[in-house]
């Protein structure tokens, strides 16, 4: 079951209110491949709570002068680590369930 934090249910207007970022900034970060909202059949963007957290981290880094390509590199390496951690956890769970 997927965590509520990862469900894409939040509109761009709500993300704007939660983060204080302009609609243009949010769209720009999508263009720069820093976030990946889902699109409805009508093309409406939908974000998750984890996307909102990521946007806040991006905003903080941008205020510090970090360029978007550097942020993307950091996010990609962070995501690789999370994927490896989930894979390892899954392997351990599978192994110990089989041995019970």
UniProtKB/TrEMBL annotation:
Keywords recorded for this protein, A-Z: DNA-binding, Repressor, Transcription, Transcription regulation
Gene3D superfamilies given in the database record: 1.10.1660.10
SMART domains referenced in this protein's UniProt entry, alphabetically: HTH_MERR
Keyword Transmembrane helix attributed: no
Recorded superkingdom: Bacteria
InterPro entries (alphabetical): DNA-bd_dom_put_sf, MerR-type_HTH_dom, MerR_fam
GO molecular function: DNA binding; DNA-binding transcription factor activity
Record-linked Pfam families: MerR_1
Protein name: HTH-type transcriptional regulator TnrA
Organism listed in the record: Halobacillus faecis
